[in-house]
Write a structure and sequence with these properties.
Blueprint: H1 8-14, H2 26-32, H3 35-47, H4 50-57, H5 61-75, E1 80-83, E2 86-89, H6 91-119, E3 124-129, H7 131-134, H8 137-148, E4 153-158, H9 161-170, E5 175-179, H10 186-190, E6 193-208, E7 229-231, H11 237-248, E8 257-259, H12 263-272, E9 276-280, H13 281-288, E10 293-296, E11 302-312, H14 319-337
Parallel strand pairs: 3-4, 3-5, 7-8, 7-9
Antiparallel strand pairs: 1-2, 5-11, 6-9, 6-10, 6-11
Helix pairs in contact: 3-4, 3-5, 3-6, 4-5, 8-14
Length: 358
């Protein structure tokens, strides 16, 4: 007779999941579903593996496996499929993940508000930033905010509109600072967000100081067509403006180009090569004023559009986030006095904002 005792991993792998459908009630959900389970589930979704989730949370892989198995038994369906790509979420897991992120975000907001109530000044703000906001507006606002509220935790996440707008709608990010979406594009209609214009930004042509046309006057766009360019990503709203710029000048897009959204990578390429790029003027001038790059003054120009912030329209903002917005407004006003044109500030308080551009 085989007296070998199977380990827990073997038992979990062999344990069948009861796929019998049963009615789920709010009472059963509240009694059996735990936040700790949702946290582990969310980490598996983020990392794409059980090992990655365990390492990120500082727990053992068997405990992650056990938790996912408990959730699968509770919901009566598989959540992940193991493959050479890691843990691939099922359709049900993808749906569950959207709700889990919202619940975890609400828990974070509750924690911040309780701490703020107890101590007076606490909490956290997760800020998503796009390339236009990262150059000057956001760093100055952060500096101002830190000097006023040193006990508030700040997390900065850089990304594209396509990644950050879904994140703010789910509560994973509190506020996105950068170029605001145009009214007609699908991205503006897909999420319930409120937008406020802070400044209007333009793009300028930038090269390294060693470029053959650096310091030259009366440079035309056609003079740069043979150079290698750094262009925005095709999915970027700015890409259409760049294509229109060349088309209106009777030119095709440069045949030699790369596409990049990384500001620091672009700056590094300009300093090390003879490439040409379009950068937000506020960012370009910071490097040009320190003699790191050269701004070419061409007659052709690209209007980047309104820069501001975006927040959820269906949730009241946290006190810490409201204070951060106050800093953004203050800094944008100072930038306007220095030469940047402002957009129409809302006369409403942040708490009373209603869906606008979206």
């Amino acid at each position: 007779m085989d007296l070998t005792v199977p380990d827990r991993q073997t038992e979990l792998k062999k344990s069948p999941i009861d796929m019998t459908p049963f009615p789920l009630t709010q009472v059963s959900l509240n009694r059996k579903l735990k936040f700790s389970q949702l946290m582990i589930f969310d980490f598996v979704l983020k990392t794409g593996s059980f090992v990655g989730a365990a390492n990120s949370m500082g727990v053992t892989q068997p405990s992650v496996t056990k938790t996912i198995h408990e959730l699968e038994v509770f919901f009566g369906t598989s959540l992940f499929q193991r493959s050479n790509r890691g843990a691939v979420p099922t359709e049900f897991a993808t749906m569950l993940g959207r709700h889990a992120k919202g619940l975890l975000a609400d828990a974070r907001h509750l924690t911040d508000e309780v701490n703020s109530f107890r101590t007076g000044e606490a909490g956290s703000v997760i800020v998503g930033t796009l390339i236009a906001g990262a150059a000057k507006l956001l760093p100055l606002a952060i500096s101002r905010f830190r000097s006023e509220y040193p006990n508030v935790s700040l997390v900065i996440r850089e990304g594209t509109s396509a990644s950050l707008f879904p994140a703010v709608s789910l509560g994973e990010v509190d506020i996105v600072v950068g170029r605001l979406p145009e009214k007609g594009i699908p991205l503006a209609k897909s999420f319930s967000l409120t937008h406020e214009v802070l400044v209007n930004e333009t793009f300028c042509f930038v090269v390294g100081n060693h470029h053959r046309l650096a310091g030259k006057r009366n440079v035309q766009l056609k003079d740069l067509i043979s150079d290698e360019w750094i262009l925005p990503l095709k999915e970027s709203p700015f890409s259409t403006s760049v294509e229109k710029l060349f088309h209106d000048s009777g030119l095709k897009l440069p045949s030699r180009h790369i596409r990049s959204l990384s500001l620091m990578t672009n700056v590094g390429l300009l300093m090390e090569t003879d490439m040409v790029a379009l950068l937000p003027r506020a960012a370009a001038l910071q490097f040009a004023n320190r003699s790191l790059l050269t701004v070419l003054e061409l007659s052709a120009s690209v209007d980047f559009g309104p820069v501001g912030y975006s927040v959820r329209a269906d949730k009241a903002l946290q006190p810490a986030c409201l204070k951060f917005i106050q800093c953004l407004r203050e800094i944008s006003g100072r930038l306007a006095e220095g030469g940047l044109s402002t957009g129409p500030h809302s006369s409403r308080t942040p708490a009373a904002l209603s869906p606008a551009i979206a």
